[in-house]
Design a protein that fits this description.
- The protein has 297 residues and is an alpha+beta fold.
- It has 8 helices and 15 strands.
- The protein has 2 domains: 121 residues, Probable inorganic polyphosphate/atp-NAD kinase, domain 1 (Rossmann fold, 3-Layer(aba) Sandwich); 157 residues, Tumour Suppressor Smad4, CATH 2.60.200.40.
- Strands 5, 6, 7, 8, 9, 10, 11, 12, 13, 14 and 15 form an 11-stranded antiparallel β-sheet that branches.
Length: 297
Amino acid sequence: MKRFALVYNPVSGHATFKNRLDWIIEAFQKRGCMLLIYRTQKDNAGAFPEFLREAKVEGLLVAGGDGTLHEVVNLLLKTGQHLPVGIIGSGTSNDFASYLKINEDMNAYFDCIVAGKTRWVDLGRVGREYFVNVASAGMMTSIAHEVDVRLKNALGKMAYYLKGLGEIPKFRSMHIHLRADGRDYEIDAFLFVIINSAVVGSMRNVAAAAKVDDGKLDFLAVKKSSVTELMKITADLIAGNPVAEKNGVLHVQASDFLVSTEGKVQSDLDGEAGPLLPLHVETVGKALEVYCMDFDR
């Protein structure tokens, strides 16, 4: 009998994953598999790695949002436990799962997991901390970890939008120095993101060239501009149109980035608070094995 661990965040999304738990257990039992369940807590650093060592499973399923996936992947890699990871998106934001199209048909995805279909994907790394999908800083980028959990559970993505509206009067640009694979750039920008996939902040196709297994990450900065120009870029993002090649956006693809600016600017890693700039970001090629159905990206 195949054994998998399922780790779930009880407060992700609308805190309703527990209502799906029995259905998921039944789905794997029907496939002749055993699920060992772990419920996340405030401090998982000690208990979770030990749970995995004792469980002796062949794969790990993560149910939660991007922040939960971020935490679990870091615990795995930092403790040297290399297991294939399946993603059951149940958070307010599930960007990486959306990009990989792995939650569109859950029964087909469960078949994929049981059959052991995987692919290797890149990760970003800042110091010893890995990020799965995005590192960012500047206007709006800290909203994910500033929104109250109770508000996110009640309103979902609307909580982010409401918080974002409150940030509009504070719009300030920052002067950024970027070194990407040895090339230097200077830019005044409202914000920047360094992305692994093309889905960021629930907005699809941000950078059409972004791929999760090419050994590179994509840097995009929204340049200082008028409100009208900024709104045009925002409208394209919401509509799912690529913005990487827009005049108001700097797009650089590279494997190594050093981003610095004046003053105290905090970064964000997968929706979690990151270190203050300067930020040194490295691409770690083929760092994580994920259960994934075939697709054309």
